[in-house]
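A brief tutorial aside. Many learners find it easier to grasp structure tokens once they have seen a single protein encoded end to end. The record that follows does exactly this for Heat-shock protein IbpA. Read the sequence first, then the structure, and try to relate runs of similar tokens to stretches of the chain.
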Amino acid sequence: MRNFDLAPLYRATVGFDQIADMMDRVLSTEVAQPTYPPYNIEKLDQDSYRITIAVAGFAADELGIEVKEHALIVTAKKADEDKRTYLHRGIANRAFERRFHLADHVKVTGATHADGMLHIDLVREVPEALKPRRIEITSQKGETVEAKALSAQETV
């Protein structure tokens, strides 16, 4: 296992502690990640995503989706264990918990369950205060630079 000292990152930056925590979490986890249940992450548009999880054998009321502290947590638990005797049990429908860490401003907009697949739709909603905005530049005479440019074009 690799050990990285992230102390210089904390000393030299302000406000990037979430990135450092994420790097620390990724580097400190076990190499053997759980593979059940299989899932896909799709980018549908510039700011929209979809997570699709294979949940064959689970009904919609046996699934749970929760968003807590920038984490999307998907859980599944069978309502009752059947008393069947299997000669071969190749279909895994064991309980699970799958976590996805969400970036800032990523919101879950909905979820659907169809044909053994759970689709979770997400969208990134950047607040107006964080979007780029254009600042007008005024000259010392008080008129704006754009107004001077327009008046120059009108005289040509």
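Self-check: The beta strands are 39-45, 48-54, 63-68, 71-76, 96-101, 106-114, 117-124. If you spotted this yourself, you are ready for the next section.
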